[in-house]
Amino acid sequence: MAENNVAENDLLVLANKDLCVAVSPAAGASVAYFKKLGDEEIDIMRPASEKALSESDASGFSMYPMVPYIGAIHGGSFIYYGIKRSVPANVSGKKEPFDGDGWRFAWNVKEFDGKKAVLSCIGDPKKGFPFSYESDVTYTLDGNKLSVFIRVKNLGILPMPCALGVHPFFPKTKDVTAKFFAKNVWEHNETPLRDKPYAVTDDWSFKEEKKVYGTGFNTCFGGFDGEAEITWPSKNIKLNITSREEFNHIILYVPNNKSFFCLEPVTSAIDVFNLASRGIMGAGMKSIGPSEEMTATIDFVVSNI
Asked: Is residue 267 one of the residues assigned to a domain?
């Protein structure tokens, strides 16, 4: 493991006595590992595979930022201010673009001191999302807390739609539980919403902690209050996720044949730009004008049970 204030194998390593986080500029400003330190090191998020590290493939990392949109843009296009905007697919074998541009290319390092790393990128409207933007992601360690601050600035002369989020991958043990409050469902199993969200039923509610293993969720919830909790009883570890008021949606993805699950705070429903163009309200649609910014912060606090 690298000491403070150094880069190791092209990773920026942030560390204190409680936590250690490694960030990859080459892989979309993604987190390669997030560990709790102590008598033993415990992975809070799934560590990046050797293959993912060698290929700078953020999809195999611990967490990546989603900018300037989240989830899928269904059909690969949307209408904004009366103009149809096309977005190319960004994942091999997929017909639709997913999770924004940022995780698909390298970022620049603006600041790094062993406790904080600031990375930036500029989107190319000719290659991906059809608007010009600048984005910063800041990772900061403070005791037992990792803070992630995301900023997107519109560099164009017209308004642009925007959504932000993070895509973490957590170890899926048989005893892991999740807890969060949400009021409704916007999308399930990649089936686009056609009319309006429907209310969360008791068997889909995570208002009280519930085991994750075997649930098979692939669901975007709305009416999220910004607070989530993940507990690994066998590891005696708890993770509290706090996202600010912009984050009123959350995605739970629990693939049955994988060793991870995802719990993703996001600022909008999946496919929000198309939802908004159809006049569906409450999906979290945001527009930022020329030179305007959208920002969001997520805190991950690690503690013993």
From this structure: yes
Structural domain containing residue 21: 7-304
Q: Which of 68, 7, 67, 64 is nearest to 30 (CA)?
A: 64
Mean pLDDT of the region 17-26: 97
Taking residue 24's Cβ as centre, other Cβ atoms within 10 Å add up to: 26
Residue 1 inside a domain? The answer is no
Number of domains comprising the chain: 1
Question: CA-CA distance, 139 to 292, in Å (whole number)?
Answer: 22
DSSP 2-61: PPTT-EETTEEEEE-SSEEEEEETTTTTEEEEEEE-SSS-EESSPPPPHHHHHHT-GGGS
CATH number for position 198 = 2.70.98.10
Q: Is 184 a domain residue?
A: yes
Nearest to 302 by CA among 41, 70, 73, 32: 41
Report how far residue 161's alpha carbon sits from residue 183's, in angstroms, rounded to the nearest whole number.
24
> Tell me, what's the pLDDT at 213?
95
DSSP secondary-structure letter at 64? E
- What percentage of residues in the chain have a pLDDT greater than 90? 90
Alpha carbons 88 and 204: distance in angstroms, whole number: 33
Within a domain: 30 = yes
